[in-house]
């Protein structure tokens, strides 16, 4: 049996009830085979970055998994599919988006998967929630570099039912 690997997954949605979609994605991750959610960030509202459509709700999950990185990607895409994710065009509005940010210390570059995620440190909607679950990965200079990207941590009263 494989030793568990700590991985980080970015969650985002901007169609329908985006807060509910992100909360349901946390629950779907927790129910996934060989996946244990060990940390949940706050929910954040962000304007679309390099995309169009309504504001996004974003978060990050820290997980321990025995799945290989490609199998974890399959599991994430299955959760997206169950949430009605369509890939009509690059950066299209979405019912749910799950991105594998880090998979342990692995560096993976394949046609299907790149880890660490190639743009993780350029996006406030990744950095702020990632800092919630793993502050050591996010340095103040990274946050300073994205200060022009609007982001708002949602209050608990705005995220009722969220158990993060």
**Average pLDDT over all residues:** 88
Extended strand count: 8
Q: Say which CATH homologous superfamily is assigned.
A: 7,8-Dihydro-6-hydroxymethylpterin-pyrophosphokinase HPPK
CATH C-level class: Alpha Beta
The main pleated sheet reads as: 6 strands, antiparallel
**What is the fold named in CATH at topology level?**
Alpha-Beta Plaits
Question: Can you lay out the helices and strands and say which pair or pack?
Answer:
Blueprint lengths: L4 E9 L4 H14 L3 E6 L3 E3 L9 E10 L3 H14 L14 E7 L4 E2 L4 E2 L8 H10 L6 H6 L5 E3 L11
Antiparallel strand pairs: 1-4, 1-5, 2-4, 3-4, 3-8, 6-7
Walk me through what this model shows.
With 164 residues, the protein is α+β, with helices and mostly antiparallel strands. It has one domain: 2-Layer Sandwich (Alpha-Beta Plaits). The protein is 27% helix and 26% strand. The protein has four helices and eight strands. The strands form two sheets. Strands 1, 2, 3, 4, 5 and 8 form a six-stranded antiparallel β-sheet that branches. A two-stranded antiparallel ribbon has the order 6-7. β6 and β7 form a beta hairpin. The longest helix has 14 residues, at 18-31. The protein starts with a strand and ends in an 11-residue tail after the last strand. Mean pLDDT is 88; it is low at 157-164.
């Amino acid at each position: 049996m494989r030793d568990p690997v700590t991985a980080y997954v970015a969650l985002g949605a901007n169609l329908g009830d985006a807060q509910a979609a992100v909360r349901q994605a946390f629950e779907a991750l927790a129910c996934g085979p060989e996946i244990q959610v060990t940390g949940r960030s706050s929910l954040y509202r962000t304007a679309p970055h390099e995309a169009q459509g309504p504001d996004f709700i974003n978060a990050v999950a820290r997980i321990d998994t025995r799945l290989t990185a490609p199998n974890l990607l399959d599991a994430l895409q299955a959760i997206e599919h169950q949430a009605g994710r369509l890939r009509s065009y690059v950066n299209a509005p979405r019912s749910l988006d799950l991105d594998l940010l880090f998979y342990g210390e692995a560096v993976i570059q394949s046609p299907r998967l790149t880890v660490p995620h190639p743009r993780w440190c350029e996006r406030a909607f990744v950095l702020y929630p990632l800092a919630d679950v793993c502050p050591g990965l996010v340095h103040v200079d990274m946050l300073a570099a994205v200060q022009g990207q609007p982001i708002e941590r949602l209050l608990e009263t705005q995220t009722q039912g969220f158990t993060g």
